[in-house]
Specification:
399 residues, alpha/beta, Lyase, Ornithine Decarboxylase, Chain A, domain 1, TIM Barrel, 2 domains, nine-stranded mixed beta sheet, eight-stranded parallel β-barrel, 11 helices, 17 strands, 30% helix, 23% strand, binds pyridoxal-5'-phosphate
Length: 399
């Protein structure tokens, strides 16, 4: 998160807090980082963006300019957003649990990838011509995902997977590839390697059964932001690439990164509004709410004062919002205190699953500023009272 230190003070001082800074260069850098590793390891690996992490048009435009291979979507709404940003259906990976047949066929007809997630969905497609589909499954290996667990509704278990393979054989549906997504916030890749080994064993088995080779293995998303990865990440990436190349030299790897591409590209500048203490705890109340920074699993917001100082473990406080909910905690045990009322702070790692999951209550949506080469190139204004009222069904004319 070095970039925030280099943002001109006038950009920060001109705005009323809270506001959101989106560094489009960082988004591009994150993509270049993974593309660099792919090139170094000479592996056929296509990087898709899991659009659910952030829908901002400038973000999508930057990823397109930087050469992202395509977009992973989970609904027709998301597919339409990707299309509007200039991605055609042959650049779409369509995952999901409940999709209309017509939507699936449209993506398939134009060469996009559809990963099937239930036997019922596969059955609903029987009779269509020249079907070529992926199957989303739960890989067999010792252990399980840290995000999608074995008992989850997502992906096909061993039994439904077998049913799907038999159906595909019987109905002459081509199995184009396999996909799984079971991790979130991975900073190192040893678990991923084990699950990939499980996938490769399964691919060997079903290729024998089907009598042809699969085109792709889609390993989902789940990597943390580049600035948060462990030191040996590149080494582990190399190991995974070698493993796949050695076992399946012709298979294409697909990943669907969300958090990895956008999380550390966004910082929220907020101010300290109150300090509260009792015998047990100290809270620093800031002016961005958890209606925007929704407290969901995997969120790892880190708060830093803008005036540089060293951490002090004797001064620990919880950084919280002013919403009357016990869940309004932004970071526990922050050690950069003592904070002062009015002081500006930076909430880092705010780019993934925030603007898309935010709720229209208690506080207005903050202003957003998109940055390129340290300059503001686009803005989205703070929501006004009327924006909020309109969302909640008040009949108010646009002004
Ligand atoms: C199927 C699928 N692929 C990719 C992702 C992106 O995950 P992440 O943001 O952890 O990379 C998700 C997120 O939930 C997902 O459900």
């Amino acid at each position: 998160m070095e970039w925030i230190k280099n943002i001109k003070l006038e950009i920060i001082n001109q705005q009323e807090t809270p506001f959101v800074l989106i560094n489009l260069d960082q988004v591009k850098e994150n993509l270049s980082f993974i593309k660099g590793l792919i090139k170094e390891n000479n592996v056929d690996w296509k990087v898709y963006y899991a659009i659910k992490a952030s829908y901002f048009y400038p973000v999508l435009k930057s990823l397109k300019e930087a050469g992202i291979n395509g977009i992973e979507v989970i609904s027709n709404l998301e597919k339409n957003i990707a299309n509007k940003a200039g991605f055609s259906n042959n650049q779409i990976v369509y995952n999901g649990l409940f999709r209309k047949k017509q939507e699936i066929l449209e993506v398939l007809k134009e060469g996009g990838i559809v990963n099937i997630d239930s036997v019922q969905e596969l059955e609903s497609l029987i009779g269509e011509q020249d079907l070529s589909l992926g199957l989303r499954f739960y890989p067999e290996f010792e252990g399980q995902g840290n995000f999608v667990k074995k008992e989850s509704k997502l992906g096909l278990d061993k039994f439904s997977f077998e049913k799907c393979i038999n159906l595909c054989k019987k109905e002459k549906i081509r199995v184009r590839g396999l996909s799984f997504h079971i991790y979130s916030n991975l900073t190192e890749l040893s678990d991923l390697k084990k699950s990939i080994e499980g996938c490769l064993n399964l691919i060997d088995k079903i290729e024998k059964e089907l009598g042809y080779s699969l085109e792709y293995l889609d390993i989902g998303g789940g990597f943390d932001a580049p600035s948060l990865l462990s030191e040996n990440f590149s080494e582990q990436f190399k190991e995974i690439s070698s493993l796949i190349k050695q076992r399946k030299p012709k298979i294409k790897v697909i990943s669907e990164f969300g958090r990895f591409l956008v999380n550390d590209a966004v910082v929220i500048i907020s101010s300290v509004k109150g300090i509260k203490e009792n015998a047990l705890k100290k809270w620093v109340v800031i002016d961005i709410g958890t209606n925007y920074l929704i407290p969901a699993p995997g969120k790892n917001f880190k708060v830093f004062p803008l005036i540089k100082r060293k951490p002090d473990n004797k001064q620990k406080s919880h950084i919280v919002d002013a919403i009357c909910s016990p869940a309004g905690i932004i970071q526990e045990d922050n050690s950069f205190g003592p904070y002062k009322i009015g002081e500006k702070i930076a909430v880092c790692n705010s780019g993934a699953y925030t603007s898309v999951m935010k709720e229209q209550f208690i506080f207005e949506d903050p202003k957003h500023l998109f940055l390129k080469e340290g300059m503001v190139v686009e803005t989205i204004d703070k929501f006004k009272l009327n924006d909020v009222l309109r969302y909640h069904g008040w009949k108010i004319k646009c002004n």
